[in-house]
Amino acid sequence: MIDTDVLVIGAGPTGLFTVHQLGIIGLKSEVVDNLDKIGGQCIELYPDKPIYDIPAIPVCTGEELTKNLIEQIKPFKTNFHLNDRVEEVKNEKDKWLVKTIKGKEFKVSSIIIAGGVGSFEPRKFSIKECEKYEGKQIFYSVKDKNIFKNKTVSIFGGGDSALDWAIELSENSKIQLIHRRDEFRGAQASVDKIHELTKQGKIQLLTQYQLNSINGDSKITSIKIKNEDGNIKEIETDYILGFFGLIMQLGPIVNWGLNLDKKLIPVNTENFETNQKGIFAIGDICTYPGKLKLILSGFHEGALAARGCFKYAKPDEKLRFEFTTTSKNVQSRLGVKKND
Amino acid sequence: MPKITYIEHTGKSHTIDVANGLSVMEGALQNNIPGIDADCGGGMACATCHVYVKEEWFDKLPKKENGEEDMIDMAHEPNKYSRLSCQLTVSDELEGLVVKLPVKQA
To answer: What are the phi and psi torsion angles at B96 (to 5°)?
Structure first.
């Protein structure tokens, strides 16, 4: 059981800056994120895209922003629990007990949800029967590539994951690469390699096709793929891999007793607390009149939510407002206090 | 204000006035039309505002910019009339535009 002041859910820019705001007012926090890296949407969706509306930073990429935020919170030596997801949130006296899917447990006085639009999950095939075979013959990520050895593998998608796996698995498997159009969005070098392997007969390229149906009973024996003109082609396959990127799902948040407005959590704008005392929501996941889904709004929301956590963490103390430029307390927390 | 028609996958149709300058996605969200999620808020980063533009409208719309087709790869059951509604800006030229919404967004 990890005992701390605040659990921050989500390691995107909003969650990271909130760690900073908690840190300078003397609260300790830990962060849980479903992704295997820090940065949230900035890292997962647009690491290379330039952002032009971070105050005082004329331009930076999602990756640069993340790096700088990590640098900014270094003094607080925060623990990040990546590749994990908060599953259960329970109230016990004045505390919140939190459990993750990996079985980690936290006891905190407040929770700040900075979860974007939820956790990232792979996008799946739209055909209902696919669920039945998921994890057996249909996969959305590769955990053990050895199972594909000497088998026929149908790979769907046009991005780097699809191309990279098609190239790698083509050494020992029969690969059918299926994509809805002729162009691929993956790296040019990979696209060239795919065409080369296609010429050598190691990959069968089937473009302008999408999955139409699955044939088989307890086991998939073949699939039908269809193009825009309605032409259907039946191909045999042992395994199917789908790489359609990630989608954000609200996930277990719906079970935590929070009011929801569609996929968003309503909050008050004084401290971004939800209908549950001690649970705050900030960034893209919260909603209130006038809400803007901007990173800078998330920073503001985090600053206020952090202060909202103070009374739960230290009920007998009064929070004094202090500036980083002058406060010795804050500077010592940041590790920059000069001895005078 | 141009009238935009959104047809849900069930066939239920909503015709609403959307102010010039808003995106077709924003028009749907502001009028609580179900079927458009817009998770990323219009950043062309999620493909959850996917629509099928009515056939006769498709060629009248401004062409896709870089990146839109890449995102459509990830949409639910895309076809040749697929667009991301966050990339369609409402103007007088779009008066009467009809878009059909997919069964789901992801």
So the answer is: 90, 5
Selecting from B39, B76, B77 the residue whose C-beta is nearest the C-beta of A248 gives: B39
How many inter-chain contacts (A to B, CB under 8 Å) are there? 52
Q: Rounded to a whole number, what is the distance in Å from the CA of A12 to chain B's nearest CA?
A: 13
Chain B residues with at least one Cβ partner in A under 8 Å: 37, 39-41, 43, 45-48, 69-70, 73-74, 76-80, 103-104, 106
Taking the Cβ of residue A200 and every Cβ of chain B, the question of whether any pair is shorter than 8 Å is answered with no
The string of pLDDT tens digits covering residues B38-92 is: 988 888 888 999 999 999 999 999 999 888 999 999 999 999 999 999 999 999 9
Task: Identify the H or E element spanning A280.
Answer: strand A279-281
- The minimal CB distance from A46 to the residues B45, B47, B69 is found for B45
CATH number of A2-121+247-334: 3.50.50.60
Q: In this complex, do B103 and A180 lie within 8 Å of one another by their Cβ atoms?
A: no
**For residues A218 and A223, what is the distance between their CA atoms, to the nearest angstrom?**
14
Parallel, antiparallel, or unpaired: how do β-strands A246-249 and A119-122 relate?
A: antiparallel
Residue of A nearest to B78 (CA): A180
For B48, the closest chain A residue by CA position comes to A247
Comparing CB atoms, the residue among A46, A183, A244 nearest residue B74 is A244
Q: Which numeric CATH code is attached to A124-244? A: 3.50.50.60
Domain A2-121+247-334 shares a fold with domain A124-244: yes
Domain extents for chain A?
2-121+247-334, 124-244
A199: tokens are 């010429």
**ipTM of this predicted structure:** 0.83
Neighbours of A234 (CB within 10 A): 12
Question: Which CATH number applies to B3-100: 3.40.50.12780, 3.30.830.10, 3.40.50.10740, 3.10.20.30?
Answer: 3.10.20.30
Is residue B18 within 8 Å of residue B90, measured between CB atoms?
yes
pLDDT tens sequence across A153-185: 999 999 999 999 999 999 999 999 999 999 999
A226 at B interface, C-beta within 8 A: no
The residues with which B53 forms a beta bridge, in sequence order, are B99
| Domain locations along chain B | 3-100
* A263-312 pLDDT tens trace: 899 999 999 999 999 999 999 999 999 999 999 999 999 999 999 999 99
DSSP characters over B28-74: HHHTT-TT---TTSSSSSS--SEEEEPHHHHTTSPPPPTTHHHHHTT
pTM for this one?
A: 0.77
